[in-house]
User: Fold this.
Amino acid sequence: TLVVVSDSIRRTPKFLAAVSVAAHVVTRPWLDASEAARSPVDPAPFAVKDAQAESRWNFSLRDTLASTTRALLGYAVAVVPGARRVVKLPSDDELAEIVQCAGGVFFPALPAVPPGPTWPNGLLALVTPELVDAPPPKTSSRRSTGRSPRQALESLPPNTLLGLVQPDDLFGAILRKHLDTDTDVLPFVSERAP
Assistant:
């Protein structure tokens, strides 16, 4: 049993990773009680209760911890070029841990390979809708990387991209342990000629 110690629910990278694999999320007094008992005590009386955060992010921590579902099992998640210019994201290492704990495969950039056995359901491109048609991102030397986010998405191998997912929707799916492809995933409409 994995126990995560927290006084409240914060959508930090560590919490997002842990909520996919934790059996209990408890408050700090659980540590004191366990130390006094010289062994782990029942975590139930020390369960974190944070109605405000649960309401804000539309999930129930109790239901999430009771579920054995892994929200991203069968999916891959990749960061679209330029996404970090538009929205604050965890580091690649943190995103990898979050996605992997939720059962998915993480790519720090769009992959050049089609879906494989570890992600047969397709790729979720982590992006905001306004970024899709943004100009190509600049390198540290202020030169363009050459491809806009749209061009990068359109260059993916056929049948790779399931859709676009905004960070808040991805993190919400992880907190609920359920990815709703109708509401959490946005379609990508290619402008390439068929």
Residues 154 and 191 are 8 Å apart (CA to CA). The longest strand covers residues 75-79. Residues 92-101 form the longest helix (10 residues). The chain has a mean pLDDT of 89.
